[in-house]
Amino acid sequence: MPAFNEEASVGAVVREVFAALPDVTILVVDDGSADTTAEEAAAAGALVAILPFNLGVGGAMRTGFRYAIENDFSNVVQIDSDGQHDPLGVPALLAELATADLVLGARFAGAGDYRATGPRQWAMVALASILSRTSRTRLTDTTSGFRASGPRAVALFAEHYPAEYLGDTIEALVIASRSGLVIRQVPVAMRQRAGGVPSHNPFRAAAYLARAGLALVFAMIRPPSTYRVGGSA
């Protein structure tokens, strides 16, 4: 669970996940927060890794994947610490891992009423079209942060999870598909944030399309051998 300045919500989210999934281990990666995110997460019963400065979601998730490898966890589920993801959707993601390596919780696949508008919507539609062809499966929500990784994906991402902006979503999908992983999606409903500040506002949304396009281009031009697990090319 990556978390950056989420003191208002992270404790409640951790407790909700434990209530829905009592047998899981929760690792909150405090991504250089300036508030009491780490303390709130620990008080709710989560393990906490504290990064010395803000790396972004990709850097926090790479920390989580490396923790999973070092502690023999086969599957990793990423869930936002702002309360937007319903943990009751986790079993559906894990069930799909029986025949896939990476499963996305898709907001635009028939569940819930989440909507994107303007440049963000255009970017999401274009990315979904391109990445569906790359991954050879229909994807409608390639920027979803609600996703489950099986053993092959955990091993790959522990070494190659991108830390750049949008790399944790777009580039991670490119890496997975070019490494031969099977990608699927299941419908999920997105909720409103329980606290904190949204990462997108009208100004940032205007820059979203260009950044998303650049992230995709850089991901596509890197040679596939870059992503080999267990050693460099």
How would you portray this structure in words?
The protein has about 230 residues and is of the alpha/beta class. The protein has eight helices and seven strands; from the N terminus they run E-H-E-H-E-H-E-H-E-H-E-H-H-E-H. It has helices at about 10-20, 35-45, 55-70, 90-95, 120-135, 150-160, 165-180, 200-220, and strands at about 1-5, 25-30, 45-50, 75-80, 100-105, 145-150, 185. Helix 3 (about 55-70) packs across helix 6, helix 5 runs parallel beside helix 7 and helix 5 runs parallel beside helix 8. The longest helix is centred in the last third of the chain and has 20 residues, at about 200-220. The radius of gyration is 17 Å and the shape is globular.
| Strand order, sheet with most strands | 4-6-5-7
- What is the number of E strands? 7
What's the pLDDT, averaged over the residues?
A: 85
What percent of residues adopt helix (DSSP H or I)?
A: 40-55%
CA gyration radius, whole angstroms? 17 Å
Shape: globular
What is the strand and helix layout of this fold?
Blueprint: E1 2-3, H1 10-20, E2 27-31, H2 37-43, E3 47-51, H3 57-70, E4 76-78, H4 90-96, E5 102-106, H5 118-135, E6 147-149, H6 151-160, H7 167-178, E7 183-187, H8 202-221
Parallel strand pairs: 1-2, 2-3, 5-7
Antiparallel strand pairs: 4-6, 5-6
Helix pairs in contact: 3-6, 5-7, 5-8, 7-8
